[in-house]
Amino acid sequence: MEDTLNLRQVEAFRAVMLTGQMTTAAELMSITQPAVSRLIRDFEIATRLRLFQRRGNQIAPTQEALTLWREVDRAFVGLNRIAAVAEEIARQAAGTLRIAAMPALANGILPRFLARFLRDKPNLHASLSGLPSSMVIEAVASGQADIGYADGPLERSGFIIETRPMMAVVAIPEQHPLCERAVIHPADLEAQRMISLEPGTIFAMRVEVALSGVRRLSTLETRLSHTALTLVSEGAGIAIIDPTSASEFVERGVVVRPFGIPIDASFLAIRSANQSHSDIMGRFFREFWDFHDETIKNAGF
Q: Same domain for 194 and 54?
């Protein structure tokens, strides 16, 4: 005779309390009615409580059973919650995801994608930090971020790196005469007001090299690509910019054209080679690239 408490007895007690009948409880547990009766009997012995009064073929819970039921039900709610979270982890809908990205992505396409990614994952805790590229790299290297997006190149071991080849584009205010051109060449920018990113990045240096010798009306500097594009949309000038940022401003007062001189505007997606990678991280990594590529394609460049 079993005189110690076990989970199967508790399951039988819960099933009887839920259904009010031994026979229905047996169906719920996919066992026989005598098996349920034995489990309830052993449960009463283990708890030293009389839990049910038998009245012919009927049973009625005692006051002790009703009191115990509240605790059992609360415990099973907790178990069900654990099971639900486990199921969500298994289908990649729960966990933790820490993302660090350069501002050009953190202020635009990344939060848009992250919002969509989280829609069917209520138990996924995510964070998104906008940082300079050098700090993004350090965040991934130190384990403070699971995924990083930064300017390249990155000549440093210990990372898994992916990128997409992308060339810079020219962002022009609507109604500007240069909108009539299919391709913008450096000479076309003669005597134009240019909006440039502040010196200090490889991309800004490449743009300056491409425009060397071109006399500009004046230059307006800003640190962020989204600020530059907002200025373009308001007619303040023309910017040579990365296509990812430019895609956010299509049909928002900005016309985008290819630039006659190829300027690398790609970015790096980085993960630590020394850290374990969860399924949810791999899924985010893959699906963001798909979303990014589709966004660029839909923008027409």
A: no
